Amino acid sequence: MEDFFKANSPAMRFLTAIFNLIAVNIMFIISSLPVITAGAALTGLIKIVYEILEGEEVFLIRDFTRAYISNFKKATLFWLPYILLWAFLGYDIFLVWNKLEGTSFWMMIPPILILLIISCIAVYAFPLISLFKDTFKNTLKNALFLAIGNLPTTVMILVIHALIIGVLLRVDSFSVILGSLMLFIGISVTALVDSIFVRRTLKRSGFISIDPVKVAEQTAADQEQEED
Question: 109 or 70, which is more confident?
């Protein structure tokens, strides 16, 4: 029984991970409330999730805040066009769908393809922004290469998100339960599942040589130098 309460015991590590997932879920939601800041908040969420996956010690508020602030400009530069395209093209698809007559279906294909492409890029863009220091152009290029070169993984992640969104939009008792779970811990758990696959892709990709395990240490060292 004494081993159960030891800090390094599997049970305590599991409970600590659950607590961190709940806490970072709440932090992400609060940080995303202005909507415009959701991209930066997502990089903070990813940073914490990767630390959990790597078995590192998580300093929740400090690590989330540092990732949020340091990645704010680059993440927002990607997030704003991404969300605006989704809003505009999504509304366009909605209008065509509700007036589906004759050849109207074919009018939906271009916006759907555009949304699929930017969503595939987003799967890897935010982890790259969160974990690696690089130019915005290189980040987008690497995200595109990763999306194309690992298409089955990319599609699987998008399908997971599509299923979650589909259930939430049903507005029934199950969607209410799922929505409550998403507010409590579901967003961070989804990010964790995504990160398991993206992390594996990053480690086996030929053009990314940086080890994500070392990113937290490098970021801390860089910030200490800036303070000096």
Answer: 70
- Torsion region of 55: left, alpha or beta (phi above 0 gives left; psi -120 to 50 gives alpha): left
Tell whether the model's pLDDT for residue 210 goes beyond 50: no
First to last CA, the chain: 46
The pair of structure tokens assigned to 31 is 């940080």
Alpha helices in the chain (DSSP H): 10-32, 38-53, 60-70, 72-98, 104-131, 136-149, 151-169, 173-181, 187-204, 215-227
pLDDT, tens digit (0-9, with 9 covering 90-100), for 128-156: 999 998 899 999 999 999 999 999 999 99
Reduced to 3 states, what is the DSSP secondary structure of residue 135? coil
Name the residue with tokens 């939601």. Answer: 29
Backbone angles phi, psi at 135, to 5 degrees: -70, 160
Alpha-carbon gap, residue 193 to 170, rounded angstroms? 23
Integer Cα distance of 54 and 50 in angstroms: 6
Query: How many CB atoms sit inside 10 A of residue 74's CB?
Result: 22
* Residue whose structure tokens are 């987003």: 122
- pTM summary value: 0.83
Q: What is the DSSP track for 156-192? A: HHHHHHHHHHHHHHT-SHHHHHHHHHIIIIIHHHHHH
Residue 49: Cβ-neighbour burial (10 angstroms; 0-12, 13-18, 19+): buried
Residue 9: DSSP 8-state: S
